[in-house]
Amino acid sequence: MNPLTQCKKIPILPFLIALALVSLASPKVARGDAVTDWNAIASTTIVAGQPPLLGAAGVLGFAMVQGAVYDAVNAIDRGHRPYLVQPNANPTDSKEAAAATASYQVLIGLFPAQQPILEPIYNSYIAALSDDPPGSKAAGIAVGEATAAAMLEARMNDGRFGPPPELYPEAPGVWRPTPPNFPFDPAPWVGNVLPFIVPTAEMLRTDGPNALTSAAYTEDFNEVKELGSLTSTTRTADQTDAAIFWADNGIVLFNRVFRTLAASQNLDIVQNARLFAMTNLAAADALIGCWNDKYYWQFWRPITAIREADSDGNPATEADPTWWPLFHPTTPVFSGPPLVTPPFPDHPSGHTCATSAIVHTLQNFFGTDKIAFSAFSNRSGTTRSFDRFSDANKEVIDARVWAGIHFRTADTQGAVLGNKIAHYLEKHYFQPVQ
In the CATH hierarchy, which fold is given to the domain comprising 211-428? Predict the structure, then answer.
């Protein structure tokens, strides 16, 4: 079976999804242009099409959509190098039709079960677009179809839904499923997916977790044991809010941020196509590199390390068999499933890998770090504001410790991994045409 179509068996809620998509796609409430409108539609579609906890797979879907959208708009604009292809186009072809079509075609390629919902929305969206000069809309549609087809073909047999990596035998320091539900990773294959930007995932290998008997490990251990505890008396209310805030679906939250930035920075459709492609492709490679690294090191989570500290050979770590992290089912959330320790190895942190790749890509795109933005989290029900892109990156590194689910070294090394991808992307992709 084609791995790109395996999600079609996943049940969805057609009425609620259709209602959300109609709201997002209606020209009366359009965010700005076809790139931002269809990014919002893609967000709803991808969340509906992926089972719970399959967040890493969702990131790959965003990358495919936005990469095809970029190639479609850029084929008409011709201002930058293509990502995959540059089909023939005229400057008067409709960029709006090209972007909408590229997004739609990739989405129904990934989630064919949602075509009955998406097709009337797409048809209505296209019908509302201008056809000036005559034929420009049909030409734009043809361009979008071509770039979507190129993306779907390029990602065929790319390692999605492949066999999981082999787990190491249980030993001190080695990951194993965590309480209270002891789940296994629903997408352990992500690390073996063909990267979108970098040549190989292995080139992103981190330095690895600290030795169990080292002073650095002891410091990380004691920090998360105190600040990340469910019953911590030193973690502040704001730190607790930040930890729960960043438990939201990271790639969906950041794409909301991208749409906000598109409006606040007055970006046009060409700039939006490039911004959304750069950030989502960087995030996808960050997750691929991160998962490859996770299963290379297979380091245990804090809850296991703290409960079993009497086995780690380190006299400076004290075991607490009853320790729970802040991410526990009893911790209140605004919406979504109960908080738990994520069901895959600790090192490196997936969230900091992706956030760092996104943040450094935003800095490169805008040519500055100092752009203020705010974001809302569906997990905490709160809005947090940042004066700089890097402020969000720093907070995510801290937040995963405050949540009790990561050692700080996993967070900081994840951020280094993400930065490598942003740097590689800047040097090798999306270059302006001279």
Answer: Vanadium-containing Chloroperoxidase; domain 2 (1.10.606)
Of the chain, the end-to-end C-alpha distance in Å amounts to 43
Residue 269 tokens read as 């459709």
CA distances from 396 to 128, 174, 235, 391, 433 (A): 41, 24, 15, 9, 36
User: Which DSSP symbol is given to 192?
Assistant: G
| Whole-angstrom distance, CA of residue 374 vs CA of residue 256 | 10
φ, ψ of residue 383 to 5 degrees: the values are -110, 130
Would the CA dihedral through 282, 285, 287, 289 be positive or negative?
negative
Q: What number is the average pLDDT over the span 144-148? A: 98
Q: Where in the sequence of the chain do the CATH 1.10.606.10 domains occur?
A: 211-428
Predicted confidence band at 13 (pLDDT cuts at 50, 70, 90)? very low
H or E segment and range at residue 200: none
Question: In this structure, are residues 398 and 239 in contact, taking their beta carbons and an 8 Å threshold?
Answer: yes
Pair 375, 256: CB distance under 8 Å: yes
Q: Which two tokens stand for residue 116?
A: 């009955």
- For residues 226 and 49, give the distance between their C-alpha atoms in angstroms, rounded to a whole number: 38
Question: Which tokens belong to 194?
Answer: 């063909």
3-state secondary structure of 32: coil
Q: Given this model, what pLDDT does residue 49 score?
A: 65
Cα–Cα distance list, 72 to 37, 96, 149, 170 (Å): 15, 9, 11, 49
The residues that bridge with 376 in the sheet, in sequence order, are 383
Q: Which residues pair with 80 in a beta bridge?
A: 432
* Residues 159-194 pLDDT 10s: 999 999 999 999 999 999 999 999 999 999 999 999
Tens-digit pLDDT profile for residues 336-376: 999 999 999 999 999 999 999 999 999 999 999 999 999 99
Q: pLDDT tens digits, residue range 29-54?
A: 344 799 999 999 999 998 876 654 45
By mean pLDDT, which of 37-51, 99-113, 296-310, 409-423 is the weakest? Answer: 37-51
Strands 383-386 and 373-376: antiparallel
Of 324, 335, 349, nearest in space to 178 by CA: 324
User: pTM higher than 0.90, yes or no?
Assistant: yes
pLDDT, residue 55, reads 63
- pLDDT confidence of residue 359: 98
In Å, what is the CA distance from 79 to each residue of 74, 82, 281, 313, 378? 7, 9, 19, 59, 37
What is the separation of C-alpha 310 from the centre of its chain, rounded to a whole number of angstroms? 36
The mean pLDDT value for 239-255 works out to: 96
